[in-house]
Amino acid sequence: MLVKAMPPKADLLTQVRRLYECVATATNLLPRVAHSLAPSMGQRLVRFLLPPVRTLRELDFDAHASLAEGLVELEEIVNDLPCSVAPIIQRGIVWHFHFPGGHSLSATEWQRYLGSVLIPLWKQHSTFALLCSLSRDGYVRQAALRSATAPLSSPLLVHILLYRLLDWVPAVREEARACLQRITKITDHAIMAEGFLGALATLPRRSAWRETGPSLIEHFNGAGIFGVAVDQLAARQQGPSGVLLRRLIISPEIDAHLPALARTAKQPAVRAVALRCLLSGVAYYTVGLRRQWVDKTMGRYMLVPDMVERPLTIIPAPRRELIQQAIFDRAACVRRIALDAAIREPVLIIPVDQLRSLAMMDKAASVRSRASWLLRQPLYSSIG
Predict the structure, then answer these.
(1) How many domains is the chain built from?
(2) In the predicted model, is pLDDT for residue 197 greater than 60?
(3) 217: how many CB neighbours lie within 10 A of its CB?
(4) I want to staple 169 with a disulfide (CB 3.0 to 4.6 A). Which of 50, 119, 138, 307 is the partner?
């Protein structure tokens, strides 16, 4: 299992600072980096005070033998970082890492530096290439993605690559799709799957996910990675796995995995989401936010999730079997969903003795109240 626990906050800050230092050293642009911690909202953990930097005209284009150790150390640091720090790295590099581009060089100098220095390094070190793909310069992002040909060694890098699929420049999006096709064939499926699940925590918040999400899931399913990602989701014991499953429901590829998730997933939220879909025969997912008017005359409204439903593409097990299996689940939220489904059924689903046991002995008050209500109905009281 490749899921990595979040390191302590002090260690995480040290790793992120070292990552930025290695990026600065590897590019030979920032001779000194002064940094200090900034606890603003708990998100922007690192703040840089950048000193004046040399321009590329002052650099020796052939003096890059010392980069080898820095790039190796950079890969080791990235391999130790969990996917959860990807938004921090993205903000830090975009805001503070001033990569050279056409605005600071003549066209001849830029092409020489790109062809003789950067592209050979990017082809050997995909870690360096994908970190450079976070540059604010679209030409740098496109060239870095085109040059990333080595297997990825960290789920964090997969997360960064998937982030570029939603780039605001069409040419960069096309290059990211081509890079994904190329990298998928040579990277370990477990690493790709973990990076995909990590990206699900942030990518669906962007509006472009509506078009990109289903095609991305279809690509991973065709490559044999989607099944690995679902197995990892079922085995996770912490994290927002229920939210990730709701975001996967946008694609019909998840339907065939719902019965297994309802039975064997470690987290109750995942079992509850899968069971609700199987009992209703409909998959619910959100496609963003919509306005709900509070007072239209005064222009007051609030944003609520915009829910969309689609029918399942599989024939689930009989409802009686699903309900009887779910009432013995160890999580109260799953038992509650099963009893709600039994309340809507016009026939007897749960044996009376089991209902009495739930009404008298269940630890959850919401489960006891539903079981007691069912026992008072004529369908069940006539048997008792």
Answers:
(1) 2
(2) yes
(3) 22
(4) 138
